[in-house]
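Lesson 9: reading folded outputs for more than one chain in a single document. The general rule is that every protein is listed as its sequence immediately followed by its structure tokens, and records are never interleaved. Here is the first one.
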Amino acid sequence: MNKVLIPTKLDKFAAELLTKNGFEVVQDSATPLAELAAKNADTNVMIVRSEAVTPEIIDLLPKLKLVVRAGAGFNTIDIKYARKKNIDVMNTPGANSNAVAEEVIAVILAAYRFLIPADNSTRRGDWEKSKFLGRELTGKTVGILGLGNIGQLLVKRLSGFEVKILGFDPVLSPDRAEELGVELCSIEDIFKRSDVISLHIPENNETRGLVNKDLLANVKEGLVLVNCARAGIVNEADIRAVKAEKKLVYCNDVYPKDAPGEKSVADIADVMLPHLGANTKEANFTAARRAAEQTIDYFQRGITKCVVNKAVPDGLDAKYQVLANALTQIGSLYLGKDNNPVRIETSFYGSLTEFAKYMTAPIAAGIAAEFAPDNAAKDAEAFLADRGVELVNRDVDQNKKYGDSMTIDLFVGGANPGKVSVRGTIVENRLMASRINDFDNLYLNLTGNHVFVEYQDEPGVIGKIAGTLGANNINIIDIRAPQDLKSGKSLAVIQVCTPVPEAVLKEIAEKVSAIRTFQLALK
């Protein structure tokens, strides 16, 4: 009999369903997790909500086989350490999405109609009707950053208010955006045009501190900014600096740590909640049901669909998954952040042909930082399909003798259709990009920081680029500069010692009249 430990206030349905299916269940939300784990060292499965599953907790459970996060985000679980211990980690994506979408509507209306201060005032016996002159949501422009499950549900929930919706998502195709009734925009455009902005993006190296003084400097007076995503994506100090000038209204439900105590946003938040996004009876029940069902399917039927830290299959070098991710990142950056792909076509040669499906998640992660590269292939396929991105794995001609290599093509539709094709392989245990479009014989070592500059070929361009980097104390490690003789264009790829500031990239682009300029940072 497998033993399940539930150290959280999860709906009792999970325990009941698991017990009916022959599992031994211990549910205890009062005892500290470390103490509870030590008392139940024979646990095989642990179902958690936002509890931190650290290496220390994992080491207390030597028989642990599966951790299920009853919710979507699994950033509180050390999935890499779990993998080392041969422990699968699952999530239940979508279980909490509607609850969060409805919460966003609630806090927007609370902010627009001063519901919280008006309630407090009236309870005191005051009658300050004129003080609480509110605004209506109907007819406003709402910007949504991140159009995954929550973002798309929020679009539906807003439809009755007759609002104009602007959206940013690194993956969502123009066709899917049109279906939803969303105008795809840059982040900068959303912050300039919106009356209300709701954040639904992950916190990572690219998004940390994203909402900063540069974006906030151009917002409309009276902007309502809602953060029910992650605390780290906003710069609190920058909000504090512009709040009075812009009459900015900030609604917050997320914090660096879910715990009692003073909160750093208390002085700038007009509506402040204790991380209630997923805290509904319905969401708790759905998460509990799905966590229990997935646990039962895992042990009784061997179904691992929602495992987010899958092991690499026998015969596949995990470095090829890293390569697929890096090549896709290059393609996405080459197209530009405002050109979301509508189709991805792949070709896998040599022994990689049989492992094509294991590249799907790294490819999805290459165009969307919110998606984990070690997710299951089916989850990656669903993620892309949900955003209107078609994935096609082409048959290959093995007679070309390309060895164990891959080609990843990204296609853009709409008014300005386009394509980028990137090929790569592994040589002497090094990840290599061998071609970008018709810039052949590139042989770029995919590690560290790289600056890409495409330009109309003419003498002296490399010198101008190198001179600008040198003047800004940026050391050059390596330079690759293949030409496309048909078009008369060249592509300079410079490996540098450190990430290059955007201002320096802009300076380079202006000096050489670049067709495109971007940078890539790889481990």
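And here is the second record, again sequence then tokens.
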Amino acid sequence: MKNKITLILLFLTLNLFGVSHSHIGSVNEVFMLTNISFFSCGDDGSVVLWQGNKNERLQVSDIPVKKITYNSSLRYIAVYETDGFSLHRVSVWDWNQKKRLYAKRFTDRIVFLSFSTKGNYLMVGTESINSLNFFDSKTGEQKQLLENPGSLVSFALTGATDTTLATYSSTGSISYYDLKSGEVKHKFSTISDLKKPVIHKNNLLLSGIVDGACITVDMTNGKQVNSLRLPEEDENTSVAIAATAKDVEPTIFIQKGNNLKIKNYSQDLFDITTTDNFKITDVKIKDNYYLISTGDSRIFSMPANQEEPVLALLGENSIIKIMDICELNDGSGNSIVVTEDGIYKLLSPLESPVKLSDNREFEHCVSFLDGYILWNENNLQYTDGLNNSIQLGESPSDITAVSVYDNLISVIDKGSVLSITTNEGTELFDYSGGVGLTGAVFYDKDTIYVSKTSTSESNPPLIKISIKTGEIVPIQQVDGIMLYNLTAPEDNESYGLLVTSQNGAASTELIRFNYSTNKKTSLANYPDENTTAFISVIDGVIYTNLGKTNVIGINRKLNRQVLLDTKNTLPQKLIDGKDYLISLNFDGTISYYSKRTLKQISLFRLGKDLNWQIERN
């Protein structure tokens, strides 16, 4: 029996991976190609391919990515994106082209995601009846391969030729199918509710975690063959298991505080005291190497056959996230950048931003008069052109949106209350909406338009309010479930995103609204709900990331669309940088684009050493 106590040394394996940027936040799963090549996915919505001394990043979503799998014959990845509540989506990407091929929306949480052994099918298991779904890997076309796919399938494995299938259902059954006929050939009762299942011993054994124990069952009859009691998982304790095809027993990892135990059924292998605490999110093994991912952005590698345990830190988050950006009104093309550590002025595509002040509380900014407003849920502060900061009176709690016009400021809070004040703090108007207000834009000093959710056909998602009289006029011509991101009026028109529903299916429209006629015109449609898309109108071109994979620009004068060359980033916001387009990306970076070519010029990151890293393209 081995039982060694070793102080873990955390270091970057420069000979293998160099200084690489990991995820911001939790790394949720890894998919190993070799011991030094693997994919990872995280809560930051990105996928990273780690290879030798470099890594390659692709921002695939604006919400967390919880699962990832890889099709080696096609070089496709499939990822599970979820907000943890109502949105459950699997998207498939061509990794070489960094292009999304198709996406599938599900109503239930996804518990299993894998390509078939030969790569013909994408298999998706959900928490539902008849939960195992098959899709053609290339086209995304759904295939009805099984007569009775079973419920709550959390593990599935096809044979070498994709003609047979073995599944484990959390309801407590193991089933074998003939995929040519779709018929069940064998079915066994077994332990129910096994979590984190792994198959081993040449596909004869299946191990998982249930009720505070690691349990192994025989895949040929469903009977339990081994078990081990484990500590209950909580905020300080995490448990994971891993096994190779040859292993008779799984390897069990138990992280509690700053103690990491590694064991199997037969013996305690290692007892490691770590230099700090971390929670294990996933463990994989390949080529005699373990990969351990954590909830705080780190990934460790550890040889499986070593005498002394040493964890090598392959990557961790080394950047400070940029939270917001806004252009200044002085015509310079300069902009204000809000980060967790400070407020900066961004000058050009190749110059490091200049720090204006520290920041400990603000998350958002908006240009105002000769300076800018900084705000968070509970506070607004105006900073003028001379860098003098002024508190903007008593602020409502839980602010969700701020807009400006001349010297007027509108503020919306979570209580669906709209407040309008001047820069001197004079209160002009309050409106309590009663339903969710999503934004407001001033038409002039006397009129404001408010976008919101709709409660009925007689209560549309856009209303006009007179600031002087308080008169409210519903705009019946705009009909839908919710309107958001309404742009400021220009040439008597605005653009917005309108969520609608038909026969229970939601879609999102990019609309144009004319203030003279109250007419709504649909310019583009996305067949799903997309409440995080942006709209920016720059030099007469309407830019939007509706659809989540690209940023398109609609040039109405030339009657054509253009595509922004976003490379591996996913823009969250786009502003006018005079000679350039500047985007804030979902991964907390900033990109500059040429207005002429629409190609990326440079990318900015702020390192935790407070030095700006500039990548020139």
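What the second record shows: The two ends are 54 Å apart (CA to CA).
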